[in-house]
Amino acid sequence: MLKFSHAIVRTPSQSMLEGITTGMFSKEQPVYEDALVQHANYVKALEELGVKVTALEPLEEYPDSCFVEDPAVVMAEFAIVTDSPKESRNGEKYEMKKVLKDFYKEDQIFYIEAPGTMEGGDVMLVDKHFYVGLSDRTNQEGAKQFDQIVRQFGYTSSTVSVTEGLHLKDFVIYLENNNMLVSPVMNKVEDFQKYKRYVVEAEELYAINSLYINGTVLVPEGHPKTQAHIESLGYPVKVVNTDEFKKIDGSLTCLSLRF
Fold first, then answer.
1. Active-site residue flag, 223
2. Which of 3, 233, 240, 256 is the most exposed place for a label (fewest CB within 10 A)?
3. Active-site residue 66, yes or no?
4. DSSP β-ladder status, 211-213 and 129-134
């Protein structure tokens, strides 16, 4: 069972108003002041679950930099700095590399290198196996390099096609104890048939990206059916409002690196 002791977050920059968005979850522009309040409450929720949070300063030059999950994948044993194909996001990895050196030795930090591309939102861990989404942000070469790295530490990986949006974890999430939240498309993936799957209804699709932390599940506010299902599985739930981040395709897992 995963136990997290640390998390890295980055305070949103005012430039988040220009963040990349597909418009899939909302057509509105974020309200910056509200985003700061929601981010602070998110950090508080992590801390209440026993996680020591390192909060980084805003990066105005990178509008999406509060989504720290994308420039790295972190485990207790290693960290992998990813390589976004999006020019407006790619520079985030250099800032994240500096931070990771406070937690990892040089030989514990690895890199996805061109022509490989990857963002952390496409990486989902289930026990000792990583599912890597092949998407507009993560390609086959990036997944291949990732596999070569994680196998050194006793992990395995396989790929899943992302056909309906930005990242894999927007459409499937693992909650530990064999439980998954899935979209109708991800519900059909052969590799996921061995898990207990709950198909989230279209109007609550955003709630798929709920976040398991040390036995409790953080659930985005405003999704009562998904919340009720998670509670029916026996998990304590904390409801967190991430509405401002939803407007630029951001969600609960995106906002932190947990290890």
1. no
2. 3
3. no
4. unpaired
